[in-house]
Amino acid sequence: MHDRIVLHAEPSSVGAARRWCARTLERWGASGQVVDSACLVVSELVTNAVLHAGTSCELTVTGPAEVDGDVVRIEVADGDPGVPVAKRYDIDAASGRGLHLVEALSDRFGTSPLGAGKSVWCELAWESSR
Asked: Domain holding 60: CATH number?
């Protein structure tokens, strides 16, 4: 199980990515908890790509049949080589918590260089609804 979608650098891509991810994982038989967590992670990673990279991005979801371990892997690749860094913000800050959220929901989380860009990825434990 493996699927991908290319998204434009525009705010509407975040919702499109979330809906696409949910449909993909539901079609594969993922549990509701996996779908919810994956969609939240996808929202954060695509938002970062849209806001900070400013390039189109490619969202890839890979199911447990193609990944070592019983996990679903989510990757967002963009054209900016800058590696995102989780920052500490004041408690009243309106933003800056996305990567902390991704890290908290993921079993593994990281970045990989890709030519002129990068891939930000995470893995979530797989649970089937079947």
From this structure: 3.30.565.10
- Count of other CB atoms within 10 angstroms of residue 40: 16
More confident position, 82 or 113:
113
DSSP character at residue 29? T
8 Å CB contact between 58 and 4: yes
What per-residue confidence (pLDDT) applies to 112? Answer: 92
Instruction: Tell me how many degrees the CA angle 18-23-29 measures, rounded to the nearest 5.
Output: 125
Q: How many CA atoms lie within 13 A of 119 on its CB side?
A: 13
The per-residue pLDDT for 88 is 65
SS3 per-residue string spanning 55-121: CCEEEEEECHHHCCCCEEEEEEEECCCCCCCCCCCCCCCCCCCHHHHHHHHCCEEEEEEECCEEEEE
Is residue 70 domain-resident? yes
- pLDDT confidence bin for 83, thresholds 50/70/90: confident
pLDDT at 47: 92
**Structural domains in the chain (count):** 1
